[in-house]
Amino acid sequence: MPEAASPHSSITFVVNGDRRTAGVPSHWTLLETLRYGLGLTGSKQGCDKGDCGACTVLLDGVPTLSCITPVHEAAGREVVTVEGLLRGPGDPHPLQTKFAEMGAAQCGFCTPGILCSAAALLERNPAPSRQEIKEAISGNLCRCTGYTKIFDAIEAAADELRRADSAPRPRDEGQHPADRRAHAHEGEAVGGTPAKEVLL
Ligand code: FES
Ligand code: FES
Questions:
Q1: Residue 61 belongs to what domain range?
Q2: Share of the chain above pLDDT 90, in %
């Protein structure tokens, strides 16, 4: 007997600053929607049961295990994946730069989740202690690095962000990504591009 088609429903949310609408199977998780619906494969599918942190994304700024989050919990909310940490085309987040420079990523499977957890930490605490860094990424497992280089890279990125924040900014500089995301919430097109419509 042919398998019954799974029911689909439509979800609208903000992903990396763009308002997106996706028609997805009702039982899908946020991770499945990001990876297989929207093609955002930065978030990794590791254990797929909430144990490893490889799937961590930011949901309204809070690190969230997308593999155990039903996609409908993201409706009307803001999701940031590792792809969304970029400041702009070819302009990586200082965390991404420091991870690359300091050997904090080896196989890299854990890296997107750790970057999201660390970005949320630095957003709320620009000068975290090493203990606070350990606690912030305690849900992200890494089997390669031994963690020391990861802690070092997060500290170095925090230093760089603090230096950048204290430097004067040109008045005509482009909008900060957080401002762009706020406008997306208000229904405006972001960066002059129309909101994208994705139907599966
Ligand atoms: S893939 Fe989500 S916690 Fe492991
Ligand atoms: S770099 Fe390989 S799991 Fe962390």
A1: 1-85
A2: 75
